[in-house]
Fold UDP-N-acetylglucosamine 1-carboxyvinyltransferase.
Amino acid sequence: MARVDVIRVKGGARLAGDVTVGGAKNSALKLMAVALLAEGRSVVANVPRITDIAIMAEVLRRLGCGVTLDGTEAVIDVPAEPGSEADYDLVRRLRASICVLGPLLARRGYVRVALPGGDMIGSRGLDMHVSGLARMGAEISGEHGFVIASAPRGLHGAKIWLDFPSVGATENILMAAVLAKGVTEIDNAAREPEIVDICDMLTAMGARIEGAGSSTLIVEGVDALKPVRHQTIGDRIVGGTWAFASVMTRGDVTVHGVRPEFLDIALDKLVTAGATVEPGDNRFRVRMDARPRGVDIVTLPYPGFATDLLPMALGLAAVAEGSSLITENIFDGRFMFVNEMVRLGADIRTDGHHAVVNGRDRLSGAPVRATDIRAGAGLVIAGLCADGVTEVGEVHHIDRGYPDFVSDLARLGVEVERTDVPEPTFDF
Ligand code: EPU
């Protein structure tokens, strides 16, 4: 009989206490790719202990690197000539492995990376990655499910305008530009803290970058970079998840390891909902002692409200007083998990990229299924506001982004367990 991994939570808990958040997944994965840009040993510290980091380590090993994951450190030994192929069996498990495209093209002049394909939150194109690298002199084609890029005469600086401040495209172009000949200007670049983290590591390696954290990045290519040790920033999405969970359960949670300024808009929305937020140095406390009020939320590229917190925003709206309008602007499939929230009794209607949510005093525990990392965490948190037991299935998705999720919940006062349950199979 097949088995499915589930997290079971008992509703009605009030989250209280301290929780420490590790390094940002979406920084650490890319910082490991940044290491490819310099021969020798780089160390990426404060990496989260999650499946995605283990997959990225394997991607780098297949490229000829020695990689040791030691606690929260990734020690990466990069050879003089890393490989140039990333296969589908790994890329399909970790879309972020597409970020080896830029660094390998810069170092090897040739790269063949499997196309990751879409996923449960939307189609997720690569056109901006491709057109940016092409402007720098790369010849790019797609064949047999791979993107193949070559720059036999090397990459050169270029002026690149992104149609949208894509995180992944900004990163790939940036990682190629640091070793290109001449100056590259990336306009309408992504401004996420994770991009600044990458720029900080690259600068420590000897790259010349101006404008990190702004919409215009100016990169002057250098001949070679040196390996470094770099500390990953804290995970603002995990931190934000606990902040929403505290408000939804009328709790009192102090989050350590994340700078509150990375969550300015999200924390401000929680204050509008009635919460008290006390920002500190690399930590913040979120308290709530009444039913939250409904708030309208619109996701946007940073510094806007993060799309990765959308499931938590929907959860908050589902238990808040009054109605809320939640608008998603980044991923076309982000609302796919809404049917699971509805199974918990949430009153949500979607139309295109808008969701109208009428808050209910309590949700009602039910078996539901995680469809991606953030939806999974959002469903577990919603289950805390439901009568009875909520059982969230396929929680391996949550493992991809939240280390220690279950033990953190337990420490904050939730009755929670994780098990494998048998699932019947039906033979034909
Ligand atoms: N897009 C294109 N063409 C491109 C690039 C992007 O159409 O060439 C579209 C995408 O289809 C999407 C939008 O632009 O609709 C935004 O994509 P972006 O490139 O900004 O996102 P990403 O790099 O694929 C990263 C994070 C996501 C996070 C987004 C937005 C990683 C590994 N992933 O994705 O995180 O939601 O930025 O902030 O860094 C997660 O952690 O659960 C997650 C999905």
